[in-house]
Amino acid sequence: MLSYLGLLVLGAVAGLTIFLGLPIAFLPHNRLLKGFLNSIATGVLIFLLIDVLHEVVDAVGASAEAVISKSLPASGAVQTVAVVLAGIFFGLLSLVFFEQKFIKNMRPLSAASDRIRYLAFAIAVGIGLHNFSEGLAIGQSYVSGAVHLAFLLIIGFGLHNLTEGFGIAGPLHGSKPSFKFLALLGLIAGGPTFFGTVVGSLYASQTLSLLFLSVAGGAIIYVVKELLYHGKIAGEDMKMMTGLLLGFVMGFSTDILLKIAGV
Prior knowledge:
Layout: H1 4-16, H2 31-68, H3 74-101, H4 108-143, H5 147-169, H6 179-202, H7 206-234, H8 237-260
Helix pairs in contact: 1-5, 1-6, 2-3, 2-5, 2-7, 2-8, 3-7, 4-5, 4-6, 4-7, 5-6, 5-8
């Protein structure tokens, strides 16, 4: 039987596996390699965006079906749609606002390196929001008595977070990030899995989970746009598309493993 303390420890481990993908940021600098790694990061994030939006659309569809079957008032479906739209707009526009307010006003000599660091930071934030919702799923499975499911979620999300580490580290290749900065990014992206596990084990809320998924979706849309721009500059078209496909397959493969495991 998995104890509550064991649940929290494993929830933290599931999030912090993201650190295993971060060291690629220290690979020797190479222009084409950087473009290729950026493309892998883009592929991982595109899959993650599809995964997030799929869950969001399913939730909206379920509320619409509930209204049709008269098991939910129309106001309930309107609330679901409002939560989704508000989350996506906030996740996207908050990063756009931050970019326009701070990043574009940086000193010219430091703008390039600072922009890359900000891009990695934005990726970590988007992934962190998504991982918080994953933590909620772990915690809510545990308190509902589905301990086996909670354990499978921990394993699956742990594997999935490994690929997300590549997504964060890709744009940083060649910029010589400090260990402290990488550690901060790892905590921002992976730590929310633990906090989501805690919140999910104390308070079950489908609306809260949907809100964080939607905010994550909006943030990822912004990040994918930025990665496509930087990847186009850094790499050749064929290498870029190959890397993008590889990143997508990496994300897709971990999702298939989850499905095989019955998660």
